[in-house]
Fold this sequence. Notes:
Family: Belongs to the 'GDSL' lipolytic enzyme family.
Helix content: 25-40%
CATH architecture: 3-Layer(aba) Sandwich
Number of helices: 10
CATH class: Alpha Beta
Keywords: Hydrolase, Lipid metabolism
Strand order of the largest sheet: 2-3-1-4-5-6
Strand content: 5-15%
GO biological process, one term: lipid metabolic process
Protein name: GDSL esterase/lipase
Structural class: alpha/beta
InterPro entries: GDSL (IPR001087), SGNH_hydro_sf (IPR036514)
CATH superfamily: SGNH hydrolase
Radius of gyration: 19 Å
Low-confidence stretches: 1-14
Number of domains: 1
Mean pLDDT: 92
CATH topology: Rossmann fold
Number of strands: 8
Distance between the termini: 9 Å
Amino acid sequence: MALSFTPSYVQGSGKNAKTLFVFGDSYADTGNHDPLDPAVKTSWSKPYGLTWPGHPSGRFSDGRVLTDFFAAHMGTETPITYRVVQKQLKRHGSTGRVKAACAWGINFAYGGSGVFPTFGSQFVTISGQINQLRASLSEGLVSISNSSTALLVVAGNDYTAYGLLHPKKEAGNIFIAKVVSGIVAALEVLHGLGFRRLAVSNLEPFGCFPAVTYLSNYTKCNKTENEESGFHNKLLASQISKLKANLPDTDISVLDLERAFSLSLGGIFKHSRSQWKSCCKAKQNGGCGLVNAKGKPWYSVCSKPNKAFYWDTVHPTDSGWESVSKILFF
């Protein structure tokens, strides 16, 4: 059964209205990066958004991402991005009109972000995103109720950044433990702000990214990479169990991306030639969304994105996310 994007109830304005607040990275980002900043405008460039909505929307996919499917599962609309909230505040000069736009919550996620600083100041850390929530609360734009949900998605940018700084050294167990501790600490802070519904993702299998499988000519996942993400997930599961015991008043859910990605790749996408390949594939020294000095694409797009699981080297397609979401939510 496909997910429906029609809300299952009429959004209210009272204390029991469902709201969603999103924190994390590109798996959750629905357009927080500045489309005019060359350093972070990839998700605002063609062919991103090719399948939905038909043009770039700031999402790192040809269509929808995890946040969209999660909101639909809740029966709410995808919340407005913090970037748009700030833009509207500057335009209107008061919170009154902007507050109405935040009726479904706010998305604070930035593609490329992590628990720790990753690739530059544009990539707001998880703690920085929570500070943006604090500012929004102080401005009276939003409030947190028992029907509010906080979604935290951390897909591994901390490990990518670590690899760039230490190219000859894998992220060891000590660093992985620090990342996991940072995730749990963020959940504790969100609880302290009033959330009693928390959802957090574990890691997808790193070794199945096209960025990795190209080393085997796209024939198999990399066992070593999968062991790294697997260790993170085992440690996170242990820490979440302890957190649940310490916060009996809170509903804490783990979105098992490891299982959902693995089942999707081994299921409906198993016999596709695109199983471990990017639909949007780089040419020469380019990348998906990049063009040369003459404006010609440095990438090629597969003929059937709906048959591919991966859109680019690390992000699922709209169809990929739909498959993952069916496993997560049904």
